[in-house]
Amino acid sequence: MAQYQVLARKWRPQQFADVIGQEHITQTLVNAIKNKRIAHAYLLVGPRGTGKTTTARILAKALNCEKGPTPTPCEKCANCVEITAGSSMNVLEYDAASNTQVDKIRELIIENVKYAPTSGKYKIYIVDEVHMLSGGSFNALLKTLEEPPDHVIFVFATTEVSKLPLTILSRCQRFDFRRLGTSLIVKHLAAIAKDEKVQIEDAALLAVARGSEGCMRDALSTTDQLISFCGNKIAEDDVLGVFGLAAHERIVELSGAVLDGRSSEALKQFNDLAESGKDLQRLLTEMIEHFRNLLVVKMAGDQGGAVDATDAELVELKKQSASVDADALLRVLEVFTGAEGRLRFTASKRVLFEVTLIKASQAREAASIDVVLQKLNSLRGGTPPTSGTAAPVAAKPVAVKPVAAAKPAMAEPKHRQDAVAEPPPTPGYTTSAEQLQAIWAYVHEHFAQAAPLGREFLNQGRALSFDGRVFTIGFDPEFKSAMEFLNSPRFRAVLQTKLREFLGHDVGIHFELAEDPELDARKSEPPASETAAPTPASAVSPFAPATPATPPPAKPSAAAPSSRDTKDFRNDPLIKKALEIFRGQIVTVRT
Questions:
Q1: Which of 82, 105, 343, 448 is 20–30 Å from 308 (CA)?
Q2: What residues are paired with 45 via a beta bridge?
Q3: Is 557 a residue whose pLDDT tops 50?
Q4: Average pLDDT value for residue range 416-425
Q5: What is this structure's pTM?
């Protein structure tokens, strides 16, 4: 009676064209054989079950086939048959995990490479899991690997290339195997099931592909186990029940409850999944993968196949991601990824998962710093939020832009564009120097109270002009960095709020670099020791008319100390109101 052969061995590819999802590697090897550019050492890198050892055996057949070297081995000659059966004397496979010592490598490889192959053109050494070799074994192999005899070819396979010395990597041609896509695994499993005369639902195939995590060997082993359990008819519930997976629809429902902030509903759905025996570690992994897909679809769509999903799943992802912003998805994803490592080692996996769901639901509604600043600005502007209503705080950061001024009563010409960077000046509007300095003094004083961090930067500027629509603030080129700092949305919003408080209407703000005559004059003044001595008071005629001293422009000094101490800051009504709304406390005050 013939022994049963599992699907993973029965359906192992025998030609380069049969290898699934690794065309970038198989095509390179085919071209190398055709062009007679065969290297003496190859390194195959990638996750488990993606075709590394299989590709090494196909390469060995292609090189030692009686018709070869050829990219399409005949599968009929003695060499091909022996290599397929694993009995060839010229294709030697070694497991590095079982032969780590230097003596073993010297005995199995180094001492035997000098002997010519008994049949065929090449003697091929396939070393699986090569990263398990000891440091001494690698050093002993270096010279042989760099200059082997013409009839010797090395093929190394590993899942952890980071453990290999650079001296080994530099002597090999490296090929990186990829994880297989879900749709690719589903298509391949469907073809195998048809040939095996097994009826398996599309949803069941999708569940098997999801559970394999890009590993074709795992997918085939799972299918083999399901056939033994269910017979020739396999449904999705069979797959979920046997392997403790959750249906994709349940993942979507649970993530929807988290995104909507419905913590109680999320806990109820999770309790149902946990009671049905689902693997909590696997469930958390699928939640992370789902939110990752939502974030990618939200930010970039399905560009370049970055989302591994079927067409139906992609439609569902686009629909769900449209109802939430990217920042909220990022916060929720950070909560889940932070819990993934702790879930592996905690004794109370269920409790930790429930706490994670609650945190993720709260993270969805968390306010960003820009939203907090906007609310603070609204409070300072005299428009506090309406009491008695629980308005949810938007999670999406709001970019504060300069408020456009109201349109003049006169009709605008039709040829004028609607979108302009700054409002045009009001015709006939003039501002005296006294009025300009009064506006600037008010803005400067109240800006320092609302934004202490920007006070010293505003000290470097000065009021240049105001035409009724745009208030222009000038900075000497020496203080260009201060201008750039204040030109950020948060500080522009505070300045516009102060202008609106003083003027009673919205105006625009413009920053520009302009030479400061007063600053230039101070730079050109000689030191105090070189100036002439002041005229004695007795030398001044008592009958001379008194000349009133001209006060300097109303520009605060950069070195002037702050007029608000720590006590005043803590007693500020705005700060008190912010602490009340956000339920916070002052930890430290920096001036």
A1: 343
A2: 158, 176
A3: no
A4: 44
A5: 0.59
